[in-house]
Design goal:
Helix 2 crosses helix 3, helix 4 packs across helix 5 and helix 5 packs across helix 6. This protein is an alpha/beta fold and 394 residues long. It has an eight-stranded mixed sheet with strand order 1-7-6-8-9-10-11-12, sandwiched between helices. 28% of the residues lie in helices and 29% in strands.
Length: 394
C-alpha cells in the first residue's frame, strides 16, 4: 500500500447534506461531521467520541473511536487509517459506491458503524446524509428528498424505518451491522425499499468486517468470511479445533489495541485476535454464532448463550425487541428472564416454545414486557440500563 493510501482523505466531491428538519442531536452530529472533515484534511490522527472529533499529529496516522458500550463502559480503540481504507476499496466494488452515491447514516459518529459509513463515503467521494436524532418518518422523508442510495444501519433502526410505511425506491444497498436481522423484518424491508439489496455483516469495533451475508446465506448464519479474512477456532483450554469454539480473526482490518479501557475477552495470538465470541463454521464455510463469552451464564452446570434464545424468539414470534438476561438462582446458579417489546404471542406460548427448543433448564423462566426498551444512541439495546430495570421489577 502506498503512503498516500495509508491516510484518510476527504474527496472534494463529498458533501454533507443537511436535513430540512433539524433536531438538536442531529445538529450536533452534522457539526461534528464537519469538524471531522477538517481533521481529515489536516492529515493527522483523529479521535472521535460522542462529543466531538479532534485531530493531532502522531508518527503514523491513527483513528481513535469508541466501542458501543452495550454491556459495559465504552472503550476507546486505536486503529490505523489503512485498516479501514483496505475495506473501502472492497466495498466500493461490492456496493457500487461512486461519487454519485449518497450514504445515509443513522447513529452518532461516536459509534463505529456510523463513523465507518461517513469516512468511507468521504474517502470515495459519495455524499453523506446525517439522519441521527430524527423521527423515522422524517428520516424517510429525507431519504426521498436527498435521493439517498445506500444505508449504514442497525436492525433496530431499520425496523423503525419500515414502521414508517414509506416507500424509498432510491435506496439500492442496505448494509446492516450491529445485530442479527430477524427473518420477519426482511419482508417489510422489501416493501419499504423495493430496489435495495440487503447485505448484513458481522464484525466489531475491534475487528471491523468478519463475515458478510446475502440472500444465499442459510438462515441463522452470519455469512461467509469477508474478503481477506481468515478464521480459526479454539476450545476453552485454548487448543485449536476444526470448526467450533471461540472465534479468532486474522485480517488487514483489525485494530491496533485499546487506547482507553480493557477487555479480558480480547486477546491477540499469532496474528489473530478474538473478542470472546463463540461460533461454528459449517462445511460450506458459513459462520453461525453462539454468543459472547461475557454474556454466557451457567444454568445447572450447562453453559447458556442468551443470544441463541434471543434469536429464536425474534425469528419465531417477531417482537420489536427480545433480550434475555440472567438473575442469580441459589439452586441452579442462574435463571433466565425474557424481556420483549412490541406485540407478540402470549407468555405461555413463547416460554413453551423455548422449553421445547432448548429444554427446561436453558429456557427462560419468565417473560416481561417493556415499552420502550432502552437503546443506546448507536441503536443497540442498552443492556446495563435494562438490567437495572429488571432488578427493580423483582
Amino acid at each position: 500500500m502506498t503512503h498516500a493510501r495509508s491516510h484518510f482523505s476527504w474527496s472534494p466531491c463529498c458533501e454533507i447534506r443537511v436535513p430540512a428538519q433539524m433536531s438538536q442531536q442531529n445538529q450536533t452530529h452534522c457539526e461534528a461531521t464537519a469538524a471531522m472533515r477538517t481533521c481529515i484534511q489536516t492529515g493527522g490522527s483523529i479521535r472521535v467520541t460522542n462529543a466531538q472529533p479532534s485531530a493531532f499529529k502522531t508518527l503514523t496516522p491513527q483513528l481513535f473511536c469508541e466501542t458501543g458500550g452495550s454491556t459495559g463502559a465504552p472503550k476507546v480503540i486505536a486503529r490505523s487509517h489503512a485498516s479501514w481504507i483496505a475495506s473501502f476499496d472492497i466495498n466500493q466494488k461490492l456496493f457500487d459506491i461512486t461519487q454519485q452515491s449518497c450514504t445515509a447514516v443513522f447513529g452518532g459518529i461516536g459509534y463505529s458503524l456510523a463513523l465507518y459509513g461517513v469516512i468511507e463515503a468521504a474517502h470515495i467521494g459519495a455524499d453523506i446524509c446525517m439522519l441521527a436524532g430524527l423521527r423515522p418518518d422524517v428520516q424517510c422523508d429525507e431519504i426521498l428528498r436527498q435521493n439517498a442510495t445506500l444505508l449504514y444501519i442497525t436492525p433496530t433502526q431499520l425496523a423503525m424505518l419500515c414502521a414508517a410505511n414509506t416507500s424509498c425506491p432510491s435506496i439500492l444497498h442496505i448494509i446492516i451491522g450491529g445485530g442479527v436481522l430477524p427473518d420477519g423484518l426482511r419482508g417489510l424491508v422489501r416493501i419499504s425499499f423495493p430496489n435495495a439489496v440487503m447485505t448484513q455483516f458481522y464484525g466489531a469495533s475491534e475487528t471491523s468486517f468478519i463475515t458478510i451475508a446475502n440472500t444465499l446465506t442459510p438462515n441463522g448464519s452470519v455469512g461467509a468470511p469477508y474478503p481477506n479474512v481468515t478464521l480459526r477456532f479454539t476450545d476453552p483450554l485454548g487448543n485449536e479445533t476444526e470448526n467450533t469454539g471461540e472465534v479468532w480473526v486474522k485480517s488487514p482490518y483489525v485494530f491496533d489495541g485499546y487506547d482507553q479501557g480493557t477487555s479480558a475477552d480480547t486477546r491477540f495470538q499469532d496474528g489473530f485476535v478474538t473478542i470472546g465470541e463463540y461460533g461454528r463454521l459449517d462445511v460450506a464455510g458459513h459462520l453461525y454464532l453462539l454468543g459472547r463469552k461475557n454474556r454466557m451464564v451457567t444454568v445447572a452446570d450447562q453453559n447458556v448463550f442468551p443470544e441463541e434464545i434471543e434469536s429464536f424468539v425474534a425469528n419465531r414470534f417477531a417482537p420489536e425487541h427480545a433480550i434475555v438476561l440472567a438473575q442469580p438462582d441459589a439452586l441452579r446458579g442462574h435463571r433466565l428472564i425474557l424481556i420483549v417489546q412490541g406485540k407478540t404471542a402470549s407468555e405461555d406460548t413463547i416460554l413453551k416454545a423455548c422449553r421445547d427448543t432448548f429444554g427446561p433448564l436453558k429456557a427462560p423462566r419468565r417473560m416481561l414486557v417493556i415499552d420502550p426498551l432502552p437503546l443506546l444512541t448507536s441503536g443497540k439495546p442498552d443492556l446495563i440500563t435494562l438490567a437495572k430495570w429488571l432488578e427493580a421489577q423483582t
